[in-house]
Amino acid sequence: MSGPGPVDAVNPAVTCADPQAARLVATAYDVIRQRYAEGRHQIGAAIIAADGKVYCGIHVEAMVGRYSICAEMAALAAARLYTRQPLMAVAAVRYPKPSEAGGARIVSPCGGCREVLLDHAPQIQAVVPQGEHGVFAPLHTLLPVKYVGTKWAAQLPTQTP
Length: 161
Description:
Blueprint: H1 19-35, E1 43-49, E2 54-58, H2 71-82, E3 87-94, E4 105-107, H3 111-120, E5 125-130, E6 133-138, H4 139-142
Parallel strand pairs: 3-5
Antiparallel strand pairs: 1-2, 1-3, 3-4, 5-6
């Protein structure tokens, strides 16, 4: 394991025109910049609740890959530990390995995170990379045909025209 990655990693929040998106990306970046450990923690995430409070998480790698925990899931767990407020938006940042060229970058939630986030926050948005920019996208548009089981009543997002 190693400590923080490249010191010249630029905060990808500078690519976000929306101040709220920039705040989330900057927070996710700061968390992973401080906690980066090669092969252990490479992605940081931040979720904002309706009251404006932000909850963070980091990716926790496991020797058996399927038991790794995504940063978005860690942030969701932290949010649900401390608030019952609706969750409004999420952002994740991947910090580069010391051997990699390029800087930190915004990453979209994986398919599993999209499913779970929508289970707990049907109206949540995600900051996603679009070209050279970070922009908000309603998460349900990134997962248009969400799985709906029978554990609890489905809360499907409101569709906008």
